[in-house]
Amino acid sequence: MGHIKEKFKVKADELNVEIKDLVKNHGTRKIEDVTLAQVYQGMRGITGLVTETSLLDANEGIRFRGYSIPELRDNLPKVKGGAEPLPEGLFYLMLIGELPSEADVQHLSSQFARRSHVPNHVFAAIDALPVSAHPMTMFTVGVMALQTESSFAKAYAEGINKKDYWSYMYDDSMDLIARLPRIAAYIYRRKYKNNVHIQPNGLLDWAGNFAHMLGYEDEGFKELMRLYMVIHADHEGGNVSAHTTHLVGSALSDAYLSFAAGMNGLAGPLHGLANQEVIKWILNMREELGTNAPTKQQIEDYVRKTLADGKVVPGYGHAVLRKTDPRFTAQMEFAKTHLPDDELVNIVWNIYETVPPILENLGKVKNPWPNVDAHSGALLVHYGLVEYEFYTVLFGVSRALGVLASLCWDRALGFSLERPKSVTTEWMKQFIEGKVEAE
Ligand SMILES: CC(=O)SCCNC(=O)CCNC(=O)[C@H](O)C(C)(C)COP(=O)(O)OP(=O)(O)OC[C@H]1O[C@@H](n2cnc3c(N)ncnc32)[C@H](O)[C@@H]1OP(=O)(O)O
Ligand SMILES: O=C([O-])CC(=O)C(=O)O
């Protein structure tokens, strides 16, 4: 057993004891009341899940095991000469709960390289789709085809003790994270680069190798990929992709089935697809206005038109956050260091000054500030990755780190099948009249 796997088991055993004690001694403690409006409106604000890997504060944003994004940028190991944190280090932190050493991160990089083989039938399954298919469709099809490799599914079919679920889930998660960049790069090169593929370089770090397989050797792009893979990795447990992965996993579906399900949620425009929608929206704005550098007044008019057409302003608003997303700020800082004069990036910054007061004045938008998706596309365009339909796949590769670390925890902690109660509107009416009661 590798030392990380062993360490994870020790941590999980410790937490298991604590949780058993919490449930035994405090199991009847009421956390909060649930209102009728919350039940109808997307369960906003209901504390209903336990996710160990990260915790979101509405004003400060995400913390991974207590570390904010600026703290991760300071404290996680980097490649020699690099300034951005390595995603391997964040995966270690989410899994183990402690900052990794350089050696831990190197060990993970080599593990991912060693486990990265993708069988040919996965590429054949992707090839069976028309090139016009959306990259996210190809991505989930690729992940589903890879499910043939699940060690959890095989072991379960043979019959295993529930105490051992975590071990197979760990191996599947490691394998899947190792293989995703290869699948994603295959999709990119098939759809946009004449089906000419680039072999992995096992000596590079996970994100650096991903950039290489996509066809981008610029060190600036590799640094961006490292940062990108870190900041998109996790956003506590209630977001659509993490919640879906967790929910499907609770039926003891393996890591491939669970992750593919989560990715179908990430592919929705109110969630991960918003990153492509932002760039599409900015490019449409430039085309309609006939200028590459719209003024703030022109941006304002375009925002008002978007709202008047009954559409959302992509990249703005959030279900939990109530301030500017620190993931937006991290990307802004990256841009200020590496590409301060980029035209598109400057439009993103002008939008940031224009949109919040307009959304605020609508009176109904709870968070007028930008989220992570408002900035990411402009950085990618700068390095030549202009094919915006691919952006959500990048998000998905990163999100695997968080949701799969969580899935390991779910099985190691023996979490239950998730099955909340639902009611009908007729039941709600009777409840108001005092004729029925919640169980
Ligand atoms: C990685 C991520 O998933 S980050 C989010 C990415 N998604 C986007 O950027 C899409 C644009 N934003 C949105 O659609 C929303 O802000 C969401 C989906 C992110 C959050 O939704 P909610 O929690 O329901 O937001 P909120 O409570 O503020 O919504 C209240 C109203 O404001 C509207 N609103 C919220 N954000 C926006 C926006 N950016 N533009 C226009 N209207 C908005 C809602 O559509 C809703 O309108 P309605 O009452 O007519 O239905
Ligand atoms: O937290 C959310 O609901 C959406 C989000 O920003 C993410 O998943 O990264």
UniProtKB/TrEMBL annotation:
<dbReference type="InterPro" id="IPR010109">
    <property type="entry name" value="Citrate_synthase_euk"/>
</dbReference>
<keyword id="KW-0808">Transferase</keyword>
<dbReference type="GO" id="GO:0005975">
    <property type="term" value="P:carbohydrate metabolic process"/>
</dbReference>
<comment type="pathway">
    <text>Carbohydrate metabolism; tricarboxylic acid cycle; isocitrate from oxaloacetate: step 1/2.</text>
</comment>
<dbReference type="Pfam" id="PF00285">
    <property type="entry name" value="Citrate_synt"/>
</dbReference>
<protein>
    <recommendedName>
        <fullName>citrate synthase (unknown stereospecificity)</fullName>
        <ecNumber>2.3.3.16</ecNumber>
    </recommendedName>
</protein>
<dbReference type="InterPro" id="IPR019810">
    <property type="entry name" value="Citrate_synthase_AS"/>
</dbReference>
<dbReference type="InterPro" id="IPR016143">
    <property type="entry name" value="Citrate_synth-like_sm_a-sub"/>
</dbReference>
<dbReference type="GO" id="GO:0006101">
    <property type="term" value="P:citrate metabolic process"/>
</dbReference>
<dbReference type="GO" id="GO:0006099">
    <property type="term" value="P:tricarboxylic acid cycle"/>
</dbReference>
<keyword id="KW-0012">Acyltransferase</keyword>
<dbReference type="InterPro" id="IPR002020">
    <property type="entry name" value="Citrate_synthase"/>
</dbReference>
<dbReference type="InterPro" id="IPR036969">
    <property type="entry name" value="Citrate_synthase_sf"/>
</dbReference>
<comment type="similarity">
    <text>Belongs to the citrate synthase family.</text>
</comment>
<dbReference type="GO" id="GO:0036440">
    <property type="term" value="F:citrate synthase activity"/>
</dbReference>
<dbReference type="InterPro" id="IPR016142">
    <property type="entry name" value="Citrate_synth-like_lrg_a-sub"/>
</dbReference>
